[in-house]
Amino acid sequence: MDRRDFSKLLALLAISPNQGLGNISKKDKIIIVGAGIVGSSIAYHLTKMGAEVTVIERDRPAAHASGRNFGWLHASYPTKPYSFHHLLRLSLLAYQKLETEIGIDIHWGGSFEW
């Protein structure tokens, strides 16, 4: 399966309710290959569900595409379409929740607009 089809499948699974992942137990041992944004996110959520997760990365976390993107999250003013602004706002809230959950210090920049 090529990476684009795999990404589409992951997106579908993410928005599909009740995919049977509720059966994860502390006895389950799962290996994730790749510590980019997708692999790290999968590992994080499986760990929260009780699985024992090992992440294998050839280089270092976010060493490739995940660490070399523009990655600009902002929601300072409503952009059109408004659904896009809503998605941006939800993304910021998710990062703020993650910051609290795992005790990291995200350095939030600012912006100036006129």
UniProtKB/TrEMBL annotation:
GO terms for cellular component: cytoplasm. Residues 29-108 form the FAD dependent oxidoreductase domain. This is FAD dependent oxidoreductase domain-containing protein. Keywords: Oxidoreductase. It holds the Pfam family DAO. GO terms for molecular function: oxidoreductase activity. InterPro entries: FAD-dep_OxRdtase, FAD/NAD-bd_sf.
